[in-house]
Design goal:
With 318 residues, this protein is mainly α. It has one domain (9-273). It is built from nine helices and no strands. The chain has helices at residues 9-32, 37-66, 74-100, 107-129, 140-165, 177-205, 216-238, 247-273, 278-285. Helix 1 (9-32) runs antiparallel to helix 2, helix 3 runs antiparallel to helix 6 (177-205) and helix 5 (140-165) runs antiparallel to helix 6 (177-205). The longest helix has 30 residues, at 37-66. It is flat, with a radius of gyration of 29 Å. 20% of the residues are buried.
Length: 318
């Protein structure tokens, strides 16, 4: 049996502390939003849930720490999916409690909830990628290019969280019920899937990471984040007169659409102008019906004034 690879203990501890601290903050919100006997019941439920989550996290986080120095990010994808799945369920109940109690206009607590999510979620993604531990990416230019691509992922996460935060932050006029539910679960799916796509691009390429071929995430984010969220913000601003729409992120979406479209067109041109692989050239140069190409030995060159060397025969042993 092959022994498991060594675990990066600081990486495991850091990711575990970040995950459990964010879960504890969400639990504090849920407990404080309830009063009387219901508060004790909610406290017991979230405590039991956190203990079960910690048991699962104990095994997943260890394997995430074991694959940090490798090209694989499979367990990192599992941990991300598990974390967002549980965290967003708690956020949903917090959002519903704020919606039910519209008289509670504690703007500071709502802004603090947005701030906690906007820090913990991107930081955890950076920890799971662990680009500084990619010892197999030795070229500084290639590592910086990967870091720039991951920066776009972090910005996209903040973009999605900004859309989602409009649901629980104080608002003068509420959106229709179907629009709020659709917006929340759309952001939920984006937070679940898109970072896993970015991690899978790194994992599938293995040791030979070619940053310019990591085009799956930019194409998906171009459609699902930059175009759709631009439509969502424009609709909220024009139809519902929502003053909380971020004009800066609208400008970010416009610039991202232009830049990602240009990079995709440039990538297509590079793929079309690239020479065919060596194996395809050999197949084209081969004769019809797969005839083997006859290899002609190079002619023997004899310099003027010199005699060719005699062929050396193997010695016969007596």
């Amino acid at each position: 049996m092959v022994p498991p690879p060594p675990t990066n203990k600081p990486h495991v501890c850091l990711s575990t502390i970040l995950i459990m601290s964010s879960m504890a903050l969400m639990d504090a919100y849920l407990v404080e939003q309830n009063h009387g006997p219901r508060k004790i019941g909610i406290c017991i439920m979230v405590t039991v849930g956190d203990l079960c989550f910690l048991i699962v996290l104990r095994y997943v986080a260890v394997w995430v720490g074991a694959e940090v120095r490798t090209a694989k990010r499979g367990y990192a994808m599992i941990l991300w999916f598990l974390y967002i799945f549980v965290l967003e369920i708690k956020v949903y109940f917090i959002y519903q409690n704020y919606k039910a109690d519209r008289k509670s206009l504690d703007a500071l607590a709502r802004k603090a909830l947005t701030l906690v999510l906007s820090i913990c979620i991107p930081v955890l993604f950076i920890i799971l990628v662990a680009i500084d531990h990619m010892e197999y990416v030795r070229a500084f230019k290639k590592r910086e290019e990967i870091r720039n691509r991951l920066f776009w992922v972090v910005v996209d996460l903040l973009d999605v969280l900004d859309i989602q935060a409009n649901l629980w932050e104080p608002q003068k006029k509420g959106l229709p019920l179907w629009a709020e539910g659709l917006m929340f679960f759309y952001c939920y799916i984006l937070l679940l899937v898109l970072p896993c796509v970015s991690l899978s691009e790194i994992s599938m390429q293995g040791i030979n990471i070619v940053p310019h071929k990591m085009m799956l995430y930019p194409i998906l984010s171009l459609v699902t984040i930059n175009v759709v969220t631009l439509f969502i913000r424009g609709s909220n601003m024009l139809l519902y007169k929502d003053n909380r729409v971020s004009a800066i992120l609208i400008g970010k979406n416009v610039l991202a659409i232009i830049l990602k479209t240009c990079s995709f067109v440039q990538y297509r041109r590079q793929m079309q102008s690239a020479p065919p692989p060596f194996g395809i050239e050999l197949q084209k140069n081969a004769g019809p019906k797969g005839r083997p190409v006859q290899v002609v030995p190079p002619p023997q060159v004899i310099m003027q004034g010199q005699t060719p060397l005699p062929e050396v025969t193997p010695c016969e042993h007596t």
